[in-house]
Write a sequence for this structure.
């Protein structure tokens, strides 16, 4: 069965759903590189940019990865203690920004629950890890599901499992290449996910950072039918640290959020115009054509088509009203180019 009405997800004072402001996640991931002060500075940047949430990756290296994995040395470097994570979450709370976390394994998810994150994300690499997904679902926190490089069967199985506990789910569509080529974005998949699950859908933007298009792609979010955008950022991209390929600098992050908010004002209500605003009424009065006398017309004469024309003349009878006055008698004389008004006919 296709679900047509999209579910809304409330997180703090924010609401994610159809016709709601695009929800912006400033993605830190592990770009703090294990430096606690850097992590706090990145929260500051997210707050300054007016993002809705800042997101980190909570990792337990023993549960997450085998020691001989190629990136294990990086994982060792970026691991924080539960106390540090709690301090970061509290810092974000004091600054008024939502604090999200990826939970890569059961121990990490338990830490996220203990420090009271506002929402959890299941990374696409763990979408078939049903033990971790169930642990996350049991927290009753809103869950963001990364679905990159994942089959529809795998997505459906994960959502079905979570729905045993709740339905506060946001599906996050994103191509898992860093950086992502434009032709790989597949924005039309957003519609497929909406139709299949009736849930809000977000975009994980991994396009190359600090390019023109990296500043444009997030602005397309509401226009492709998505409700959430997640964007990586770093303090200084020139240092080429973790995840720099798809990350933007702080000033760019701030510009993207501001421009996204501005673009959000372009949708309007979607309802037909009943009363024009001052600007459009002024345009109508100045630019729309009215029915005017093409020649001098005497009083008590019968209006014929060749006696009138359509010209810009200020508010008056619309050209589409022409058949309502043909055959009417004039109550007074009209000079050439004078507007013909209905109340002056009989």
């Amino acid at each position: 069965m296709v679900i047509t009405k999209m579910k809304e997800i409330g997180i703090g004072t924010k609401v994610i759903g159809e016709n709601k402001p695009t929800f912006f996640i400033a993605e830190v991931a592990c770009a703090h590189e294990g430096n606690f002060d850097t992590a706090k500075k990145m929260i500051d940047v997210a707050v300054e940019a007016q993002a809705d949430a800042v997101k980190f990756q909570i990792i337990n290296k023993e549960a997450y990865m085998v020691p001989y994995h190629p990136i294990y040395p990086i994982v060792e470097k970026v691991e924080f203690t539960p106390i540090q994570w709690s301090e970061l979450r509290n810092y974000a709370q004091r600054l008024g920004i939502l604090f999200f976390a990826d939970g890569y394994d059961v121990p990490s998810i338990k830490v996220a629950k203990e420090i009271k994150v506002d929402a959890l994300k299941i990374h696409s690499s763990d979408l078939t890890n049903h033990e971790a997904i169930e642990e996350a679902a049991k927290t009753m926190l809103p869950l963001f599901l990364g679905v990159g490089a994942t089959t529809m069967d795998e997505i459906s199985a994960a959502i079905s499992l979570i729905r045993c506990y709740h339905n506060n789910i946001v599906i996050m569509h994103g191509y898992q290449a860093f950086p992502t080529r434009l032709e790989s974005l597949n924005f039309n998949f957003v519609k497929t996910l909406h139709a299949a699950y009736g849930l809000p859908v977000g975009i994980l933007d991994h396009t190359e950072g600090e390019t023109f298009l990296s500043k444009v792609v997030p602005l397309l979010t509401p226009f492709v039918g998505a409700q959430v955008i997640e964007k990586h950022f770093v303090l200084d991209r020139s240092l080429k640290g973790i995840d720099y390929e798809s990350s933007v600098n702080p000033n760019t992050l701030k510009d993207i959020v501001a421009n996204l908010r501005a673009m959000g004002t372009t949708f309007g209500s979607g309802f037909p115009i009943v009363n024009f605003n001052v600007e459009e009424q002024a345009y109508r009065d100045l630019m729309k054509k009215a029915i005017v006398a093409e020649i001098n017309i005497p009083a008590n004469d019968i209006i014929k088509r060749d006696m009138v024309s359509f010209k810009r003349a200020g508010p008056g009878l619309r050209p589409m009203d022409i058949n309502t006055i043909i055959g009417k008698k004039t109550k007074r004389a009209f000079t050439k180019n004078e507007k013909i008004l209905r109340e002056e006919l009989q």
Summary: The chain has two domains: 16-264, 278-344. The two ends are 61 Å apart (CA to CA). The first helix runs from residue 36 to 48. The chain has eleven helices and twelve strands.
